[in-house]
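Minimal example, chain plus 1-deoxynojirimycin.
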Amino acid sequence: MNVVLNNEWWRGAAIYQVYVRSFADGDGDGTGDLAGVRSRLAYLADLGIDAIWFSPWYPSPMDDGGYDVSNYRDIEPAFGSLAEAEKLIEEAHNLGIRIIIDIVPNHCSDEHPWFQAALAAGPGSVERERFWFRDGHGDEPPNNWQSRFGGSAWTQVPDGQWYLHLFSPRQPDFNWTNPGIHEEFQDILRFWFNRGVDGLRVDVADGLVKETGLPDVTDPNGPLPYFDLDGVHDIYREWRRIADSYSDKRVFVGEMWLPDPQRFAMYLRQDELHSAFNFDFLSCPWDATRLREVVDATLAAHAPVNAPATWVLSNHDVTRHVTRYGRADTSFSFADRQHRAPTSLALGTRRARAAALLTMALPGGVYIYQGEELGLAEVEDLPDELRQDPVFKRTNGTDIGRDGCRVPLPWSGDAPPYGFNATGTTPWLPQPANWRPSTMESQSGDPASMLELYRSALRLRHTESALGDGPLGWLPEQPGGVLAFSRGSGFACVVNLSDQPVDLPPHTEVLLTSGPLAGTQLPPDTAAWLHQETTPSSS
Ligand code: NOJ
């Protein structure tokens, strides 16, 4: 069967993130792989997603889970082969699923042949010009920049020079003032587009260009000389021309954590990236006023550039939202990850269910991080010696890192590895002993499960007449702590974030709820999708 795919599909797509190492392990070595993904494509099609975004699948020493790429034109041998990736793309397309892959243009692996050549060639060489090699000041690095993973952003090599790495020392930054880097990435884009890849997720999209002269950071809370410089937009214009040169146009989604919505929207101008992750929404506490502000600010920032908003609750870098939403402070920030505050998973799960209906009802695209549809919580008690994240290592464990959201998925059975592989091999990160009720198998067919909630919501989302595709209009006169909006075509979504049950709007018929109603009322931390007989005016 060949499903017809629509060119503007990305505007309202539900995109499922596969973190390959942890999705499904086809060859039974304890690490997820492409064979595992291929064996579960039917599951993803049935879930009702429109596209898969693959975290990096390239050959990599895995110092940073694959965000340290040693060859941009092949597949990590532990994951499979290029031929297998091509088959996977074709099989997904036949099921109506698009493929987005991660591109990592800010840095590569220290094992990339270009970096190895730069080390060998020595100071002043053209090979070193592809990276940021500089002399230091005496024993001190060239400037005071800090790595996002802790410590200095510079590492010294035996001949005395230093190289820049905004992330781990095993991820040297490319020098994008070098035309050779532009040509290389243009070629890499074509390499994957020619193999049928529908889009690219751009890692650290705001980081590629550094301020001339590499000046010291003077105010760590002000604009930084290595993020969001204007020159970065020229790169995306080059890339957009390539994406648009294909008859079935290819798309980009940018990863930028930017405080200013206007600066953020500049990346989404018509000749740049198509969309970007909405981290303001992800970071927002479970609070009706704050969420409404974020929704309004998001839509207002995207409207002038005619780009769709995206709605994201979790990914492979952040504490899973079931855990976050069960805490006293429900916001997310990387700094807070150091504290590991207590959580109530029952409360977090109730809110996560309501949040799922909220995100899937908002106008734009929605991202689902693998395991979110199973309601997985962060695994917070991994033994330190098994943690792999360079964040944990570089901060001496002060920041616990991101391993807890990357634990391999539970598919079936009563005990680890829960069907992650068929051989019984222990996965690369250990799974909790209490995950039996969380498996795909135990949730399938249970109408009260998170999985069936996601299936029902995604199915309804696909039924145009059910959700409507109109602009968001807030329903007037709602009680405090309630988010309620319509989307045209008689559809409305109501989320109760207060601590009291509330009446549902009159003249409505319930399509789906995130939890049982209390009579005719919507309980706290519960959401409802409604069919409205009349559409109220927007406010
Ligand atoms: C963002 C990615 O999502 C994260 O996992 C990675 O560590 C950094 N970029 C560096 O590539």
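The longest strand covers residues 526-532. The pocket of 1-deoxynojirimycin is lined by residues 64, 67, 104, 167, 203-204, 255, 316-317 (CB under 6 Å).
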